[in-house]
Design brief:
The complex is a heterodimer. Chain A is mainly alpha-helical. Chain A is built from 25 helices and nine strands. By secondary structure, chain B is α/β, with parallel strands linked by helices. Chain B has one domain (about 30-35, about 50-205, about 260-450): 3-Layer(aba) Sandwich (Alkaline Phosphatase, subunit A). Chain B has helices at about 10-15, 20-30, 35, 75-80, 100, 120-130, 145-155, 215-225, 230-235, 235-255, 270-275, 280-290, 310-335, 405-415, and strands at about 50-55, 85, 95, 110-115, 165-170, 190, 295-300, 340-345, 350, 365-370, 370-375, 385, 390, 395-400. Chain B has an eight-stranded mixed sheet, sandwiched between helices. The two termini of chain B are about 25 Å apart. The chains are: A mainly alpha, B alpha/beta. Chains A and B meet through β8, α18, α19, α20 and α23 of A and α6, β6, α8, α9 and α10 of B.
Chain lengths: ~525, ~450
C-alpha cells in the first residue's frame, strides 16, 4: 500500500497544488464551498439526465448541491464501480492532473478495471439468490457453476437482453448449463413461484400484489418446467416438461392473451415478449436499478417495486435513462458511463436545500454506508489478511484459503460474523431491500473496539513500514495515512491534530500512528460512500 | 424489567438520563406502539419465565445415546453404550453417559417424541429454530428464530434497558439461515466470538486487550476532532443514528456492563463445576447474562454431526454436556433463577438409531428427523416428566408427537407471549408469531407440564 520513496516529492507537490486550487473553484464561490468535499459551485448540465433532474429541482424550488471535489470523486467512483478504495498513487496523480476531461477518463479507466466484474457479479448473485443452502438450496456445485457463468457474462459485458434471455430459456444440467440455475434458485418451483421470481428480477414488480387472474396468466408460462435428478450428487436437469400437453392458454402481464403451441417452450414465448425494447418493464427496470445502484435510490423507489401507484419521482429522468439504455443496445456499462459522467452523479453529498424531498429528487449525492463486503475488503487491505469465513457445508468449494476479497465470495451461505453484522443480503428473496446498511450498536462496537480491527491495525505492515520510514517526520507520516485511508490530503487543521497526537509519544510513534489510523477508519468519511 | 441484581447495568442509569435525551426518546418512539407492543397477556396469568437459555447442539445430537436409551434394542442400536443410569425420578432412566444430569431429572422434562421428518441440516435447523416449515404460509419469507422473536417482544422496543443486547449467542453464529428472518438486522443476535475457556474471554467489541481506558478516551477525542465529514454534513438522520450507536457502544466499552463476561469474578470451584471447556464455560456465561437481565441466550455447541467415529466423539462430548448442563440447572436453581428461566436443549434432529457399522462410516450415526429428543426445564415447566414415547428402537414416535412449533409455542407462552398473536414487524406482514398447534389431549403444546 505504501508509495515508494521516490514518489514522495511528487506527492507533496501535488498536495500543494491541490491546496492552492481546490478543484478549480473560482475566487467568488470558494467561500461557500466546504473543503475538502466540494469543488465548484453551480450546476451545469452535461447530459440529458442532468437536464431532467435540474428541471424537476427548479420546478420545486430546490437548490442542487455543489459539484463534489476531485478527492471525493475519485474515491466515490472507485467504491461505487469497483468496490475498492483508490490506490493512493492514483489519487495523487489524479489530484495533480489539470486536464479538463480527467473525470471522464477516470470513469473509463475504472469501468475497464477487472474488479468491475467482481463487484457486479456480487450484485447479480444477490438478485439471483446464489446460495447453496436454506432456503434456496442451489448446493455448492450449482453455486460455483452459476457464479462463474454470471461473472463471465459481466466481464464480457454481454448485452443485458441476451443475459436475460439466456437465463430464462436455457435447458440442461445445472452443472454444465449454468444459467438453468435461475429456475432452481427459488423456494417455490410452482408456476406461480417461478413467475414471481421472473417478475421481481426482470420486471422489478411484486407478483404477490397482482390480481389473481394476472398472476395465473403469467404463471402458465412457467408451469411446465421439469426438474430431473441424476446419479450425480445434487445434479439436476432443468428442461421444458416432456410430458405431452395440448395448446397452453396464457396471458402476458400487459393483458395480451396468447396460446402456446404444444411443441413450443412456453418460457421462450414469455422471453420474446419480455426481452424487447418495446416492453414497458424490461429496460425501465434495469435503468431504474442501475440508477439506484449508483445514486443510492431509484427514480422509482423501492427499485424493484414498479407499479402504477408507485410512480417515478421524476418521469422525464426515468424516460431519459430508459431511452439511453435501449439506444445503446442494452449495454449496461454504457448506461453506467452516462450516469457517472453526469453532473448529478458528481454532486457533493452536502445538501444546499433543507427541503425534505431534496435527496429523493437527487439534489445531492446520497450518503450511505459502505456495503458489508466492500467494507471488510477495505479493512482487510490494512494487514493483507483475508476475512475468516464460516460454512456449515462440508464441501471443497468452501475452503477459501487465499480468498482475500469478499466481493468475490460466490456463495450466500458462506458467511462471517462481520458480514452478518453489517447486513449483507441473505439472498433468500432477491429483493434489493435485503441489503441492510442501517447502522447498529453491534457494528459500532465492532469498529471501535474489536480485537479483529485492532489486530488488523497493529499488524498492518503498511503502517509499520510508514512509521519506520517517517518516525522523524510525523507530518509526512500523517499525510500518507490520510492519503491511503481517506484518499486525500489532510486539511491544515486535521494535519495539526494528527501530528500533535503522533508527537505525544516520540519513543513509540507506532502506537499513536495506530490511533490516527483507527480514528480515520472510524470517521463517517471512511465508513460512508459520500 | 431487568437487572434487579445489577442495577448498574441499565442503560438509563449509565446515561444519567441526559445523553438519551430527546433524540433517544424519539428513537424509542419511532414505531407506533400498536405495531411493536407486546400483545396483551391472557387475563390473570403472570408470565412465569423472564429469560431463555437455549442449549443448541448443532449438527444433530444423538437421542438414543442420551435421553432415550434403548438397552433392549441390541448392539446394532446401542453400540458400545449399552448401559443406562437411574435418575432421581423413579421410572426415568438416561443413557449411561449422563450420570450427573441423572441426579437432576426432577428439574427438567424430556420430550422423547420430537418429530419433523426432515434429514437435511439446513431445513431441519430452520424448522426447529423457527417452528416454521419452508414453503408454507407466505412462501418467500424467512421467519425469525425463537431468539429473534423473544428479542422483538422483550427487547428495546418493549422496555428492555440492559446495555448488553437482548439476544446473545455464545460464541459462534449458528449460520444455517438468517436467524432474524424478516425482522431484520436489529434482531440479529449479538455473537460474542472469543472463547470463555481462555483466561480472558475476549468478547468481540466489548473486551479488547491492549488498549487501556485512558487510551480509549484519548482515541475517542481524536475521532471526534477528525470527523470532518460528519461536521460538514450537519444534521443527517443516518449519521445521527450512527452517533447514538456510538454513544451506546462507549457506554458498554467504558462502563461496567462488560464485566458480565469476566468469568474470573466467579469462584474457581464454580468454574470447575461447569467444566473448563468452551461449552461448560459458555453455560456459566449464559447464567451470568440471564442474571444480568438478558432475555435470550443461546449456547451454540457444535460437533454433533457424527457420521463417523460416533462413539469416540461421544466419549468426549457427552461428559462435557453432562457436566455443563447439570451445573447450569443446579446453579440456576440455587440462585432462584430456574423458576424464571427456561432452559431448552435440542439440535436440528436426532441421529439414526441403527448404527452404521459399514464402510465408510465404521460406526457412525446418520441424520434422523423422524423421531428425536428435546429437553425443557425451568421458567414454569415442571420437571421430572417424560413426554411422549418412541418405539422400541427409538425410530418412530409411538405416543404423543411433539412438533417443533409446539415446543416453541409452549416456551413463548411461559414468557407471556401469545403464539397466536400477530408478529410485530416493519414490513407490514400479517403473520402470526407461530403456526397453530393441534388442540386436544396428547397432542400440540406441552400443556401437561405447564402448570
Amino acid at each position: 500500500m505504501a508509495a515508494p520513496r521516490r514518489t514522495l516529492g511528487v506527492l507533496l507537490l501535488f498536495a500543494a497544488l491541490a491546496a492552492l486550487a481546490p478543484g478549480g473553484a473560482s475566487a467568488e464561490d470558494a467561500a461557500a464551498l466546504i473543503p475538502p468535499y466540494e469543488g465548484r459551485a453551480g450546476f451545469e448540465p452535461v447530459n440529458a439526465i442532468d437536464v431532467a433532474v435540474l428541471a424537476e429541482l427548479r420546478r420545486r424550488g430546490i437548490q442542487p448541491s455543489h459539484r463534489c471535489s476531485d478527492e471525493v470523486f475519485i474515491r466515490r467512483v472507485h467504491i461505487d464501480v469497483i468496490g475498492t478504495l483508490p490506490d493512493p498513487r492514483r489519487v495523487a496523480a489524479f489530484l495533480g492532473d489539470e486536464s479538463e476531461d480527467k473525470r471522464a477518463r477516470l470513469v473509463d479507466e475504472v469501468l475497464a478495471r477487472e474488479e468491475y466484474a467482481d463487484l457486479w457479479t456480487l450484485k447479480w448473485c444477490d438478485l439471483l439468490r446464489v446460495k447453496a443452502e436454506f432456503p434456496i438450496n442451489l448446493w455448492p456445485n450449482g453455486v460455483q457453476a452459476y457464479r462463474r457463468w454470471i461473472f463471465e457474462q459481466i466481464k464480457a459485458n454481454l448485452p443485458y437482453d441476451e443475459f436475460v434471455r439466456t437465463l430464462l430459456t436455457s435447458s440442461g444440467s445445472n452443472f454444465r448449463v449454468a444459467p438453468v440455475n435461475f429456475y432452481r434458485a427459488t423456494q417455490d418451483r410452482s408456476g406461480e413461484g417461478l413467475a414471481a421470481a421472473v417478475a421481481l428480477t426482470f420486471m422489478g414488480t411484486r407478483f404477490e400484489r397482482w390480481p389473481k387472474p394476472k398472476q395465473q396468466g403469467m404463471a402458465a408460462f412457467f408451469s411446465h418446467v421439469a426438474f430431473k435428478k441424476t446419479a450425480e450428487w445434487k445434479e439436476e436437469i432443468v428442461i421444458p416438461d416432456p410430458a405431452p400437453r395440448g395448446p397452453l392458454a396464457a396471458s402476458f402481464p400487459d393483458g395480451t392473451k396468447t396460446v402456446v403451441a404444444p411443441d413450443e417452450d412456453p418460457r421462450r414465448a414469455f422471453a420474446s415478449w419480455l426481452v424487447n425494447e418495446k416492453n414497458p418493464w424490461f429496460a425501465r427496470n434495469l435503468a431504474n436499478r442501475a440508477w439506484s445502484w449508483l445514486m443510492g435510490r431509484g427514480v422509482v423507489h423501492e427499485p424493484d417495486d414498479l407499479r402504477e401507484d408507485n410512480p417515478p419521482v421524476n418521469a422525464a429522468l426515468l424516460a431519459a435513462l430508459e431511452r439511453a439504455f435501449i439506444a445503446s443496445d442494452f449495454d449496461v456499462k454504457a448506461l453506467f458511463r452516462l450516469i457517472l459522467n453526469s453532473r448529478t452523479y458528481q454532486g457533493s453529498p452536502i445538501a444546499q436545500s433543507k427541503d425534505p424531498q431534496a435527496e429523493a429528487l437527487f439534489a445531492h449525492y446520497a450518503l450511505r454506508r459502505l456495503d458489508a463486503e466492500v467494507l471488510i475488503d477495505a479493512l482487510c487491505r490494512l494487514d493483507g489478511r483475508g476475512e475468516n469465513y464460516l460454512s456449515q457445508v462440508p464441501e471443497p468449494f468452501t475452503i477459501l484459503r487465499g480468498l482475500t476479497r469478499t466481493v468475490r465470495l460466490a456463495d450466500g451461505s458462506i458467511t462471517s460474523p462481520f458480514l452478518e453484522m453489517f447486513g449483507r443480503p441473505s439472498r433468500d428473496t432477491g429483493m434489493e431491500s435485503e441489503r441492510n446498511n442501517e447502522p447498529t450498536d453491534a457494528q459500532r462496537l465492532y469498529l471501535l473496539n474489536s480485537t479483529d480491527v485492532h489486530r488488523r491495525l497493529v499488524g498492518s505492515r503498511w503502517l509499520r513500514r510508514l512509521v519506520q520510514r517517517y518516525r522523524q517526520k510525523p507530518t509526512t507520516l500523517a499525510r500518507y495515512i490520510y492519503l491511503t485511508l481517506l484518499s486525500r490530503q489532510p486539511m491544515p487543521l486535521e494535519l495539526g491534530i494528527a501530528v500533535q497526537h503522533i508527537r505525544a509519544k516520540p519513543r513509540n510513534p507506532h502506537e499513536p500512528a495506530v490511533d490516527v489510523a483507527w480514528a480515520l477508519i472510524n470517521t463517517k468519511e471512511f465508513l460512508y460512500r459520500h | 424489567m431487568t437487572n434487579r441484581n445489577h442495577p448498574y447495568l441499565t442503560r438509563r442509569a449509565a446515561l444519567g438520563g441526559i445523553a438519551l435525551g430527546a433524540a433517544g426518546l424519539a428513537l424509542l418512539g419511532r414505531h407506533p406502539r400498536s405495531v411493536w407492543a407486546a400483545p396483551k397477556r391472557k387475563r390473570g396469568k403472570e408470565p412465569k419465565a423472564k429469560a431463555v437459555i437455549e442449549l443448541w447442539m448443532a449438527g444433530g445430537p444423538t437421542h438414543i445415546d442420551t435421553w432415550d436409551p434403548k438397552p433392549g434394542a441390541g448392539r446394532d442400536y446401542t453400540g458400545p453404550l449399552t448401559g443406562t443410569v437411574e435418575t432421581n425420578v423413579s421410572g426415568i432412566r438416561l443413557g449411561e453417559s449422563l450420570p450427573m444430569l441423572a441426579k437432576h431429572a426432577d428439574k427438567y422434562s424430556v420430550i422423547r417424541s420430537m418429530t419433523h421428518g426432515i434429514n437435511g441440516h439446513e431445513t431441519a435447523a430452520y424448522i426447529t429454530q423457527t417452528g416454521r416449515r419452508p414453503g408454507t404460509g407466505e412462501q418467500r419469507l424467512v421467519y425469525p428464530s425463537l431468539g429473534a422473536i423473544v428479542s422483538a417482544f422483550k427487547g428495546y422496543r418493549n422496555g428492555y434497558e440492559g446495555m448488553i443486547p437482548p439476544y446473545v449467542v455464545l460464541t459462534r453464529p449458528q449460520g444455517r439461515f438468517a436467524v432474524e428472518g424478516f425482522l431484520g438486522l436489529t434482531h440479529k443476535p449479538f455473537v460474542t466470538g472469543g472463547d470463555p475457556r481462555r483466561d480472558r474471554f475476549e468478547v468481540e467489541g466489548i473486551v479488547l486487550q491492549g488498549v487501556s481506558d485512558e487510551r480509549q478516551r484519548s482515541r475517542r477525542e481524536l475521532l471526534k476532532k477528525l470527523d470532518s465529514l460528519g461536521r460538514a454534513m450537519g444534521a443527517h438522520p443516518a449519521l445521527e443514528k450512527m452517533d447514538r450507536c456510538e454513544q451506546k457502544a462507549y457506554d458498554l466499552i467504558l462502563g461496567d456492563a462488560g464485566r458480565v463476561f469476566n468469568l474470573k469474578q466467579e469462584k474457581a470451584a464454580v468454574r470447575d463445576r461447569y467444566g473448563r471447556t468452551t461449552f461448560g464455560q459458555s453455560c456459566l456465561a449464559a447464567r451470568r447474562l440471564v442474571e444480568a437481565g438478558v432475555p435470550y441466550v443461546t449456547v451454540n455447541s457444535g460437533g454433533w454431526d457424527t457420521h463417523k467415529r460416533h462413539f469416540e466423539s461421544m466419549r468426549q462430548k457427552l461428559p462435557d454436556l453432562d457436566r455443563g448442563m447439570s451445573a447450569l440447572l443446579e446453579d440456576l436453581q440455587q440462585r432462584g433463577l430456574l423458576e424464571s428461566t427456561v432452559v431448552w436443549w435440542s439440535g436440528e434432529f436426532g441421529r439414526g438409531p441403527r448404527v452404521q457399522w459399514e464402510e465408510p462410516w465404521n460406526g457412525g450415526r446418520s441424520h434422523y428427523g423422524r423421531c428425536f429428543s428435546a429437553v425443557v426445564a425451568g421458567g414454569g415447566f415442571e420437571g421430572g416428566h417424560v413426554i411422549g414415547k418412541s418405539d422400541a428402537r427409538a425410530e418412530t414416535v409411538a405416543e404423543r408427537p411433539v412438533e417443533p412449533h409446539d415446543l416453541i409455542s409452549s416456551i413463548l407462552l411461559q414468557l407471556g407471549i401469545d403464539p397466536d398473536a400477530r408478529m410485530p414487524n416493519d414490513r407490514n406482514l400479517d403473520v402470526t408469531v407461530q403456526p397453530k398447534s393441534k388442540k386436544g389431549r396428547d397432542v400440540g403444546r406441552l400443556t401437561e407440564i405447564m402448570g
